[in-house]
Amino acid sequence: MKICMVGTGYVGLVTGACFAENGNDVICIDNNKKKIEQMQRGKPPIYEPGLDEMVKRNRREGRLKFTTNLKDAIKESVIIFITVGTPPHEDGSADLTHVLSVARKIGQAMNDYKVVVTKSTVPVGTTEKVREIIRQETDVPFDVASNPEFLKEGAAIEDFMRPDRVLVGVDNPNVAELMKELYAPFVRTGKPILIMDIRSSELTKYASNAMLATRISFMNEMANLCEKLGADISLLRKGIGSDPRIGPSFLFPGVGYGGSCFPKDVRAIIKTAEEKGYELLILRDVERVNQRQKNILAEKVIKRFGKTLKGKIFALWGLSFKPNTDDMREAPSIVIINRLMKLGAKIKAYDPVAINEAKKVFGGKVVYGKRGYEILKGADALVIVTEWNEFREPDFDKIKRLLKTPVIFDGRNIYNPSKLKEMGFEYYGIGY
Ligand code: NAD
What we know:
With 432 residues, this protein is α/β, with parallel strands linked by helices. Helices cover 44% and strands 14% of the residues. It folds into 3 domains: 2-196, NAD(P)-binding Rossmann-like Domain (Rossmann fold, 3-Layer(aba) Sandwich), CATH 3.40.50.720; 205-292, N-(1-d-carboxylethyl)-l-norvaline Dehydrogenase, domain 2 (Orthogonal Bundle), CATH 1.10.1040.10; 294-429, Rossmann fold (3-Layer(aba) Sandwich), CATH 3.40.50.
């Protein structure tokens, strides 16, 4: 099929590459000239495991193209995915400027029947607005659909190639058939393509992220309670996770959720409800708990080293909001680093891939290391913020030798507290 993705960010680029991988002709459009030039040179501007090779392969085969020329790309395509950002406004509501301006341009470029699909996460009613705007610009027949994306950064290709489900919101059964055909190669293992009305589809995406954020905040609260009561959060996690009604995934406590989706989507659904005169009480507190949790590691450092951290050096492992991505949007590391630096501490940081992105946030205020061990020398403590695999089984003797004092703050509970204590470390985890 002839497809175009308008917006070549995490979602547009990954999904575009995956559609091409399954034999479709895909054009990825972006209004960021630098990004497109970079792609045309064959170098994706984001880090995502497996993406470089997939882009290279499909460009070579001529199935994947990149352009800033929206008009021509629309003319050549039958299915048009809107994959631009929907960042938060100051008040938490989703900023639809990009989505709606793209809709207008699509309408102006329309030459033949098209299906315009909102893949960006958008509030209920947005796909309908997209339809109205396009209709203002053209008499050419078209349909709209909603197809929210559920990929996770860090495992985006795997998630898109083998989704748990594909969600499609339509009001025309022919469009449902077209979308089923497009997605058929991705669900050969029998995973469902859920066809529903457009509004339910738009809301399901928000509800899904809101539920996951709720699980995280719930477990973070349980961890903090365990610490106060002398109970063990990892035993509690296993205990509740073995109940099939609860299930074992997404129950790991940590330093709060970040990234480009959970924080903004939780705020946006709260705002959507508010606009209808309804208060989402649980989600308000999910958000409050998360703000508190992002500070928890810094609080533990302060409790151990005092309120004045002048002269103290902290080595931080992990900067991205989660492993296997370089995405720094709303990363807990930002809150932790800023808080410690404000109290006078010096921060040395290492991350396998996010250092360039981190430099855009902290500039030269943080010292960056090329390797994990290199930043430990003379540091007062090691602070684990992101659970990259390479941090899981480190050489603890070496860590102990290099640190000024053998103190570890483990924001992801990747180490065994009693084992570390036996080795002579002072250990602080989430819930410990
Ligand atoms: P992103 O910021 O990485 O990418 C958006 C891209 O759109 C940018 O490259 C930007 O230059 C481009 N753009 C903006 N205005 C444009 C215009 N007028 N014309 C052409 N291009 C334009 O964002 P993202 O992370 O890919 O997210 C996109 C949407 O998908 C959001 O609604 C997000 O909530 C949703 N989503 C994201 C993820 C994720 O993991 N990142 C997962 C599921 C859903």
